[in-house]
Amino acid sequence: QKEVEQDPGPLSVPEGAIVSLNCTYSNSAFQYFMWYRQYSRKGPELLMYTYSSGNKEDGRFTAQVDKSSKYISLFIRDSQPSDSATYLCAFDRGSTLGRLYFGRGTQLTVWP
Amino acid sequence: DVKVTQSSRYLVKRTGEKVFLECVQDMDHENMFWYRQDPGLGLRLIYFSYDVKMKEKGDIPEGYSVSREKKERFSLILESASTNQTSMYLCASTISGSGNEQFFGPGTRLTVL
């Protein structure tokens, strides 16, 4: 079983839709949960970060972590064409080496 | 503003050539990483380094080596390039410790003919 599973999509939604992106993981040692956003021909950038179960909101974005189910989600409200990108979930075991474990990424297109 | 730079955006090499990919960060980060990114496979870790001259294998180190002679610079070396090493290569860096953001460079698109 892979440590991180993420549906690669692609996902195509109309502007204004609510988008749900999900990852499952198997490693109980994961302590930090992140979402990175990668625009075409760019490197990934950190979008959301949390270290506990529950919800964290930042503007139109909500990150949700359920440690008991080993499941994390990213919700995008009122999606915009500028949200079109690849979204990668990432996990940190809490080591000082800073290594992250990434999902395969979900490609999202928001059309006007 | 934090900055990770990579020596080339696009590179075309021939099979069997020795290839050097350079990465420089200006944030005084201890940890640096090399990934390759392929459609459907996502980001895969090749090698990482947690200090000068220190390195650790990632998930797919075969066919690659690395060098870190200075804290700010991390080089990826393809000893004898092969067509299956055609990929997007991404460098990243982070400070020592857990739960920290990795900062990525813009990537190098390498094509091996």
What does this structure look like?
The complex is a heterodimer of chains A (112) and B (113). Chain A has 112 residues and is mainly beta. Chain A has no helices and 11 strands. Chain A has strands at 4-6, 11-14, 19-25, 32-38, 45-50, 54-58, 61-66, 71-76, 85-92, 100-102, 106-111. In chain A, strand 4 (32-38) and strand 5 (45-50) form a beta hairpin. The model of chain A has no long low-confidence stretch (mean pLDDT 94). In chain B, the strands form 2 sheets. In chain B, strands 2, 4, 5, 6, 9, 10 and 11 form a 7-stranded mixed β-sheet that branches. Chain B has a 4-stranded antiparallel β-sheet with strand order 1-3-8-7, with no helix packed on it. The radius of gyration of chain B is 13 Å and the shape is globular. The A-B interface holds A 6, 8, 31-32, 34, 41-46, 49, 51, 88, 90, 92-100, 102-105 and B 4, 30-31, 33, 40-43, 45, 48, 50, 56, 90, 92, 94-102, 104-107.
Radius of gyration of chain B: 13 Å
Q: Kindly state the percentage of residues in helix of chain B.
A: under 10%
Task: Tell me the number of helical segments of chain A per DSSP (H or I, 4 or more residues long).
Answer: 0
Principal-axes shape call of chain B: globular
Secondary structure tally, helices of chain B: 0
Beta-strand percent range of chain B: over 45%
Summed over residues and divided by their number, the pLDDT of chain A gives a mean of 94
Low-confidence stretches of chain A: none
Number of strands of chain A: 11
Averaged pLDDT of chain B, please?
A: 94
Sequence stretches where pLDDT stays below 50 over 5 or more residues of chain B: none
**Largest contact between protein chains?**
A-B, 28 and 27 residues
Secondary structure category of chain A: mainly beta
What order do the SSEs of chain B take from the amino end to the carboxyl end, as H and E?
Answer: EEEEEEEEEEE
The count of DSSP E runs of length 2 or more, i.e. the number of strands of chain B, is: 11
Written as H for each helix and E for each strand, in order along the chain, the element string of chain A is: EEEEEEEEEEE
Instruction: Report, as a whole number of angstroms, the end-to-end distance of chain B.
Output: 37 Å
Rg over CA atoms of chain A = 14 Å
Q: What is the rounded distance between the termini of chain A?
A: 38 Å
Helical amount of chain A = under 10%
Proportion of beta-strand residues of chain A: over 45%
